[in-house]
Structure formats: structure tokens, C-alpha cells
Specification:
alpha+beta, 2 helices, globular, Trna Endonuclease, Chain: A, domain 1, 5-stranded mixed beta sheet, single chain, 124 residues
Length: 124
């Protein structure tokens, strides 16, 4: 990944974190690494922990941020999220959301949240 891509990703994560805080969430950790995967953001939404995958795009990409999270990535998020929950001894409810951030050349970023992306799927 080039330095520009890293900066874009970091900016997207900062915007996503600010968005989640504005919703009243508590951001617990960012960029948590485990063997086999990384979690962009872990936050609390009420009594539920949420693993948040952040996808940042510039306008004009052929694939939106949310579309770029396919079954393989979801399986990795489930495995890594499970490792996280076990390591923190969390036995309450948790889910995986995607926050898609589009960074225009000028103007405000567009942020969309897609809640519980594993609902109804078998990603174990």
C-alpha cells in the first residue's frame, strides 16, 4: 500500500470514529491486531460491542466501500472479532458493522454505516 493510501485510510478511520462518537457510541480501541487479522475500530453501542470495518474511497471508484467487503473478508472479521471478544472475556452481544467513507475532492465526506453485516449469513 502506498503512503497516500495509508493516509486516506487513516483519514477515513478518523472520520468514522468521529461519526460513531456523534451517534453516542464509546470507541474502545482502534487498529487492534491479532494473528490473521486487524480490527479497525471496536466500539460500544449501548450494551453491545461492535467491530467496525472502515472502508474509505475517493469518488469515482468502480466499487463502493461497502461492496468491497466480501464473504472472505467477513469470515476474517468474524474470526478476528471472536478472538477479540475472547481476549477481553466479553460474553455479551456483539456484531460487525461497516462504515463506508467517501472523500470528495472538495466538500464534506459522505459516511454511511451498514449494521450487522453478518445477520442471516453463515460465516463461521
Amino acid at each position: 500500500m502506498t503512503a497516500e493510501h495509508l493516509l486516506t485510510g487513516r483519514r477515513g478511520e478518523e472520520l468514522a470514529e468521529a461519526h460513531l462518537r456523534a451517534l453516542g457510541w464509546t470507541v474502545l480501541e482502534r487498529n487492534v491486531s491479532f494473528r490473521g487479522g486487524e480490527l479497525d475500530i471496536v466500539a460500544r453501542d449501548g450494551n453491545e460491542l461492535v467491530v467496525v470495518e472502515v472502508r474509505t474511497r475517493a469518488p469515482g471508484w468502480m466499487q463502493s466501500g461497502e461492496q468491497s467487503v466480501g464473504p472472505r473478508k467477513i469470515r476474517r472479521l468474524v474470526r478476528t472479532g471472536t478472538k477479540y471478544m475472547n481476549s477481553r472475556r466479553w460474553d455479551g452481544p456483539w456484531r460487525i458493522d461497516v462504515v463506508a467513507v467517501t472523500l470528495p475532492e472538495d466538500g464534506d465526506a459522505h459516511i454511511e454505516r451498514f449494521e450487522d453485516i453478518t445477520a442471516g449469513g453463515d460465516y463461521a
